[in-house]
Task: structure prediction
Amino acid sequence: MTVIAQRNATLVSAEAGCRQALKMDPKAAEAYIALGLVQREQGKLQEARNSLSMAIKLDPQYSSAFVQRGLIDLKLGDTASALTDFGSAISLRSNNAAAHYGLGKAYLTQGMLDDAYKSLNTSISLNNNSAPAHIALGDVYRLQNNRVAAIKEYQAAILIKAESDDAYLRMADIRESRGDLELALGDLRSGLALSPNSVDLHRRAGDINLRLEKTDDALKEYTTVLGFAPGDVAAVKGMTRTLMIKAQKEANGAFFLANNFESAENFIQRAIQLNPNDMELRLADAKLRAISGKPVDLSTIGTPTNDPQRIAYAEACLAQFKYQEATQAFDTVIANCTTSAQAFAVADMALMIRDLDSADNAYKRGGTFTDEDAAARSKRGLNNFIMNNFSSNSIMSYHQWPPNKLIRIFILTTIMCVTLIGNSYIIFELFCRRRRHHTRLHLFILNLAIGDLTICLCTMTSELFLIIFDQEWILGNAACKLTLYIQVVTLASTTFINVAMTYDRYEAVCCPLRSRTALRRVRRIIILCWLSSLITAIPQLFIFKQSLIKGSLIKYRCSSTGYTAEWQRRVYFTIFACYLLVIPAFCMTTWYIKIICVVISSTEIRMQKFHGQTTTTFLTSSATSLAKFKTVKLAMTIIIVFVVCWTPYIVLTLIEIYSDRRLRIPPWLDGVLQTICLAQSGLNPLIYIIFNHKQKHVPTIIIALARITSLKW
Result:
């Protein structure tokens, strides 16, 4: 049973006790007062007011009944009735501290700060141990911009009642308004140490952690809130907002993010069951599904009718990269702001979810109000955001890296080491130690190793930087263009050389007479492969460039922002997939099928004469057959590894592009597929070693490969 459920059960039991007392004595004013207080705690404000009115009717001289009814009037928004009740209570008993406290609260509601200050001071002079009175007086000081005095009153309330959640929350509000988020979080943690089951404190701590981009801590706090109160809408929205920011930060390495999505989805579904008509919850669910890569149609949810719904709608649009719709929703919310506090709250929200344009508009809107520090607050909010972004640089906080990031770095570093060592050895053997004994296959393998080594030094290194810096590009615009250009050059060259090598093997087996070609022709073919790669990669120089990350003033990304229309992206990537995967895979598969057929049917016919008769025998040359089969298995393994490593990523990316990103690759899956693609460069040297493991020493691997080519076919 949750804490909320236990509390509700206690209140139900107390209500039953009050009604039993009233059955025994229907004219017991004290019983009606007790019943009214219980009903107030249950949220039945109108019923509570009726019970207190009955108590006053039975005993018009009961000053406390007027006080309690006045407090309920304040909650119902009837300030005039509240003032009347508190005045009646004071006229009955002038030294009623609670009545003066209530009168001060009523004045505070009406913005009559001087009158509120007098009444609350009177209340405190009558009862200095009233924590609510000190909190209310702190509110007066805060509205008068006397934050030091306000904090002093809140601290006084905590000294009287250490579990005063409202005092901790208000101190956190003041710290946050000044940009002292860590101090605000410290106040909340102090409160949680004394009130570990406080839903309000946990929720507020989650909000502060989220603004500090401590996503794991924020998720923990929101999960705690939903454990206590499964239907808490604010906690559900905070959790989905946290996952959105977490997904943005860990877009290519979130192996374990799926577990968070699954847990959040369970919480959201439970909250929707408790609040089936809450549009904000359904929008939060849509946002979560969009982040996890599932298709979402926001039109089925409905049209937002109030500002909280519009903010939730904007977040769901951002999760689907519909920036224009999100901006329109935020613009409506900003235009509806009637106070600077509302505008700054919207600005902080927009900054937190990385909608910088909307945040800037909201801060400007807040600066138009006549508040004393509105302009300063606007400037401070944007400056604090810049500093928070700078201080959260991931390379400066490596000790706080999440486990999935560390695992991603470890895996990629391991692949880089294997690729570097394996291909460096192949290059050393072929280029340095066997320079005078080059064969056609030597040249192909040498250039494949050079291509794979370049992928290690360029592609894998840049990917490692992106993981370390949470997808932030720190090397400048020129390096962005050059890196993406070299990535495609090396990838295309490796593919083209694989195709050329396959065709060379096809000629060697199926057309042995035509295959007796000088090394000069093979060199020309390899040069043509590299030139073709350099030409086909030219669009990368125009498509990719450095641009600001949405929601940041100082962080950049290297992204494909060179497209002017979505159809251009589709056309280019389709062509890219064709010359990188589809056409090469088709050609190589066709040629190797023919090679297999020839190897299987290969026989040597010997004509032997015996006693003047000619006898034809079919004897398979065992040495030649073994070499042929080894060649076929080696080459087929390379092709299978190539197709298996690249097909899933390219196919899923095509699906994502052609679905207008309604079907998105989940972040964790995208990271896995990219790692598999890069792993191919490290597998090629291992394949050579595995297929020659019976040799006496490793250098003879290259000699064996050379002999395969020099067979007399």
Observations:
- Residues 293 and 664 are 4 Å apart (CA to CA).
- The beta strands are 544-548, 556-560, 604-610, 613-619.
- The longest strand covers residues 604-610.
- The radius of gyration is 37 Å.
